[in-house]
Specification:
By secondary structure, the protein is of the alpha/beta class. Helices cover about 45% and strands about 20% of the residues. The protein has 2 domains: about 170 residues, 3-Layer(aba) Sandwich (Rossmann fold), CATH 3.40.50.1970; about 180 residues, Up-down Bundle (Dehydroquinate synthase-like, alpha domain), CATH 1.20.1090.10. It binds nicotinamide-adenine-dinucleotide and glycine.
């Protein structure tokens, strides 16, 4: 097991990465105020892993109930969030009851938001079971649900007490979902870690083949990058925004196509290519840089072009981005591989041209 720390003073917490961690209730027990927990999962993940977690908790004397939600990005909404509250109320959960999010980023984001608001805030633990959740969404305390006009528009910052990334759960992850997670892994290389990007270029085939050592290393590097950024800027007043490389374009793809049609990671990959294209137009990336960025996304099994939504719809949806300030769109671009910049000066025709260059004809 490898352990990293998200350093946030009294709210610091560990990220444990390893094989079989869903059974390590001994890592959970010391964090509980009372020996009671509520596990929230979905219809896909629960049949695979819920019993293991419940049994491990029972073995250390923790009574764990469960709430099972429907599966999918389309359910990251008010109605489904309310089902968590219904379950917590029906089970008479208290302010001391710890919630455990068992699933991918959709479950993690919704359970985190429920924990942020139930009885004005209860503790929660992330047990992420997708690569995307293990390298990104389970770390950093961003919690949210979607609005039909914008991704993650309603939410809160609420840090977990612990992240337990069980690499063994990735064995059952569909290949398309593994690729989606790799989009966020590649992101860390692009925004601040050129050495990691080069390692990814050399090792992408091992990752796609689910080599355990390669996955552990990629998850650790990703979480180390994210933990540093979150510790420096928990509520995204500045540098944390670079974690959104490709996301402004990508969120427009997700909302524009209907949530769940394009996976989040797929939309981020196509969005990163649009950001790379715009960075080339700004004179910051060379043709060779863009070719490397395209090649690594292709090697990860990710799309390098977005869907042919009307350009006007892209721009309309992008205008809802949380980074918009005083009506001005701010985008994460690249000054080089491993060097992100937050840019509010790209002319609208250039943004349109970058999208046009990177959508299906
Ligand atoms: P997801 O949660 O929808 O999971 C993907 C699919 O895999 C689902 O069908 C799920 O049921 C299934 N699944 C999960 N674990 C499995 C396993 N071990 N075996 C088999 N199937 C499994 O999607 P995701 O990619 O994990 O997360 C995407 C979400 O994360 C988006 O809503 C995105 O906005 C959010 N996100 C949040 C942050 C953040 O900082 N909070 C960062 C990145 C992404
Ligand atoms: N995934 C973006 C962030 O955590 O800030």
């Amino acid at each position: 097991m490898r352990t990293l720390k998200v350093a946030l003073g009294a709210r610091s917490y560990p990220i444990h990465i390893g094989d079989g961690l869903r059974r390590r209730a001994d890592l959970i027990l010391p964090l509980l105020k009372t020996p009671r927990a509520m596990i929230v999962s979905n219809e896909t993940v629960a049949p695979l892993y819920l019993d293991d977690v419940v049994a491990a908790l029972a073995a250390v004397g923790v009574d764990a109930g469960h709430i099972i939600l429907p599966d999918g990005e389309a359910y990251k909404d008010w109605a489904t969030l309310n089902r968590i509250f219904d379950g917590l109320m029906a089970a008479r959960c208290e302010r001391s009851t710890t919630l455990i999010a068992l699933g991918g980023g959709v479950i993690g984001d919704m359970v985190g938001f429920a924990a942020a608001t139930f009885q004005r805030g209860v503790p929660f633990i992330q047990l992420p079971t997708t690569l995307l959740a293990q390298v990104d969404s389970s770390v950093g305390g961003k919690t949210a649900i979607n609005h039909p006009l914008g991704k993650n528009m309603i939410g809160a910052f609420h840090q977990p007490r612990l992240v337990l990334a069980d690499i063994a759960t990735l064995a059952t992850l569909p290949a398309r979902e593994l690729s989606a997670g790799l989009a966020e892994v590649i992101k860390y290389g692009l925004i601040r870690d050129a050495a990691f990007f080069a390692w990814l270029e050399d090792n992408m085939a091992r990752l796609v083949a689910r080599d355990g050592d390669a996955l552990a290393y990629a998850i650790e590097c990703s979480c180390a990058n994210k933990a540093e950024i979150v510790a420096a800027d928990e509520t995204e007043q500045g540098v944390r925004a670079i974690l959104n490389l490709g996301h402004t374009f990508g969120h427009a793809i997700e909302a524009g196509m209907g949530y769940g049609e394009w996976l989040h990671g797929e939309a981020v990959a196509a969005g990163a290519m649009m950001a790379a294209e715009l960075s080339r137009m700004r004179g910051w990336l060379t043709d060779a840089d863009v070719a490397r960025i395209e090649a690594i996304h292709r090697a990860a099994g990710l799309p390098v072009r977005g869907p042919a939504l009307p350009i006007g719809q892209y721009l309309e949806l992008m205008a809802h981005d949380k980074k918009v300030e005083g009506g001005r769109l701010r985008l994460v671009l690249l000054e080089g591989i491993g060097r992100a910049v937050i840019d509010g000066d790209s002319p609208r025709p250039s943004i349109e041209a970058a999208i046009r260059e990177r959508i299906d004809a």
